[in-house]
Amino acid sequence: MASLLREILFETAAQGPPPSKDFYQLVITQKEVIWRWWKISVRSEFRGAPPGEIKLLHNDFLNDARLQGEDPMFGARILDYTLALCGGHVDYLERLPDKLLLEILSYMSLQDIGHLSQTSSRFRKLCNSEEIWRQAVKGHCDDMITEDMEMLANVMGWKNIFFKFYYKEHDMNVQNQMNTVSGS
Asked: Where is the F-box domain (predicted)?
């Protein structure tokens, strides 16, 4: 499975809390945790200061409480994620290309897509993409989309088209079936 991973597993950067203007970067590769910082100051004693860097193997990082405590600008969530990556807990699904994920999503129910959209910002973006909603509309109208409908969908958005036209029709069909079954 490791062959599916890119060399860099995670990377983030941030500016230190005020009044500091220092800049920090955290990079997690398949083997190392790299912590870099740049001193940015108008004070003469810091002008021209070289950037700093610490590189640790994953096991060394897991055992270095001092470095784990030096992460005020990224926060506990990033630290927990870094510890998980260093411990070998990699989310392979999150690393698949968008095109492949969209193909997988096309086989899921809209309810499951709604649940998946709540798991991460990446899945929220994918589950709300025009491609997913275009597939939903085409799935509900048996690929009988006219040019006018497609132009309207391109203007209004496929998700809006689905909820304005097809979702209501689906609800009415379900209600009619329930009425037929109950005998009313």
From this structure: 90-136
